[in-house]
UniProtKB/TrEMBL annotation:
This is Pentatricopeptide repeat-containing protein. Transmembrane segments: none annotated. Belongs to the PPR family. P subfamily. InterPro entries: PPR_rpt, TPR-like_helical_dom_sf. It comes from Thlaspi arvense. It comes from the Eukaryota.
Length: 407
């Protein structure tokens, strides 16, 4: 067998892979065919954590992808632990292997490492995959606790992410279970995490559960911030308890928490939904005195009620005086109000004005108009509008297909 001297190795430009022996560089593989028959390719070399980490740090992702099916949970875990200080590289590594084929412990370790990134999105995305495939939040939390210990971390952000993940998936029972498990294990949830839970309960109209949870926050001495108070003011408004909602505003101010425009807009919406427009105007007057300028979120709820009363012009005039230009939500409110009252001519006029101002009518817009036409027994006009919508849909589909073909 031919023996290679050191100069010969230099001429052949053979590289050394740390911990993995000699291999031919990919760029010169084709010119050294005789040698490649006696030296295995990189993907055929025994894979070690050292060689894998070196490949990751040198961005040899083609190699990582090539050997991904051969990576064991033990090897992946060791590699992830070596990338704790570079979570961006850990994320790139995780994105190039199939975590689903690895064991649960390794999956949770990957999430723990990725959670160190400044953005929570990658960790939340990985968590969602686990939460939707596992039946027990307790099992997931226990495994995340173990992963945290392996990293030697004292941060509780990983558990806050788990709660937030359940909130985004609208899994109320799992969200609450996870929160109380955190407390059971001695981990203090952040105020922001509690706000995510309160917001979920409010959005789903779980009013009683929201109050029970808020009481537990108080008992656990978890401080409320402006977002907490805004959520609870919204809960009270949904219950129609407007006087108590205003009392919360005074309480938060007494604690040194300054209201923001969302606070006032929430109260305005609450009064408007009850038809108490003068009360809504009093809130607007107060917010102006505190230096806040009313916006479209302030006036759209008032517009909605006044439109049903046939007094939309009053609100539009007031908005114009403040320099507020109606948006697509405003126009949809006006179209709905006119359609419900049978004033289809004005409804279609608002549709045309909406398009003139650069707002594209939505399915909600057209559904409102079609419903109004049917209610007025104008079946033929409704069918014409339906055909118009279908033609626009077909035109948009063709445009998208044309764009795809150009790519």
């Amino acid at each position: 067998m031919r023996r290679f001297t050191f100069p010969c190795l230099l001429r052949r430009r053979i590289s050394v892979l740390p911990g993995g022996g000699y291999f031919l560089t990919a760029a010169r593989l084709s010119s050294l065919t005789p040698i490649s028959t006696t030296k295995p390719e990189l993907s055929q070399q025994p894979i070690t954590s050292v060689s894998l980490v070196d490949s990751i740090k040198s961005s040899q992702w083609h190699f990582v992808e090539q050997v991904s099916s051969k990576l064991t949970p033990s090897l992946v875990s060791t590699t992830l632990l070596s990338l704790v200080k570079t979570p961006d590289l850990a994320l790139n590594f995780v994105n190039r292997i199939d975590l689903r084929r690895l064991d649960f412990s390794t999956q949770c370790l990957a999430i723990a490492v990725v959670s160190k990134l400044s953005s929570p999105k990658p960790a939340l995305q990985l968590l969602k995959a686990i939460v939707t495939s596992r039946s027990s939040v307790r099992v997931i939390l226990d495994e995340l606790v173990f992963a945290r210990e392996r990293l030697g971390s004292k941060s509780t952000i990983l558990f806050d992410f788990l709660v937030r993940c359940c909130c985004e998936l609208k899994m109320v029972d799992e969200t609450l279970e996870c929160f109380y498990l955190m407390k059971e294990k001695g981990f203090d949830p952040k105020t922001e995490t509690c706000n995510s839970i309160l917001s979920l309960l409010s959005r789903l109209n779980r009013i009683e559960s929201a109050w029970v949870f808020y009481a537990d926050m108080y008992r656990m001495e978890i401080k409320s911030n402006i977002y907490t108070y805004n959520i609870m003011i919204n809960v009270l408004c949904k219950e129609g308890k407007l006087k108590k909602a205003k009392e919360v505003l005074r309480i938060m101010e007494s604690f040194g928490v300054k209201p923001n425009i969302v606070t006032y807009n929430t109260l305005v919406q609450g009064y408007s939904l009850e038809g108490r427009i003068e009360g809504a105007r009093m809130i607007i007057k107060e917010m102006k005195s505190k230096g806040f300028k009313p916006d479209l979120q302030t006036y759209n709820p008032i517009l909605s009620w006044m439109c049903s009363e046939g007094r939309a012009s009053e609100v539009l005039k007031e908005m114009k005086e403040l320099g507020l230009v109606p948006n697509s939500v405003s126009y949809n409110i006006l179209i709905r109000g006119c359609s419900n009252k049978g004033d289809l001519e004005t409804a279609f006029a608002y549709r045309d004005e909406m398009m003139k101002e650069g707002f594209t009518p939505t399915f909600y817009t057209y559904n409102t108009l079609i419903h109004g036409l049917f209610m007025e027994n104008k079946i033929e006009a409704a069918e014409i509008l339906i055909r118009e919508i279908r033609e626009k849909e077909e035109g948009e589909r063709r445009r998208q297909m044309s764009c795809l073909r150009k790519l």
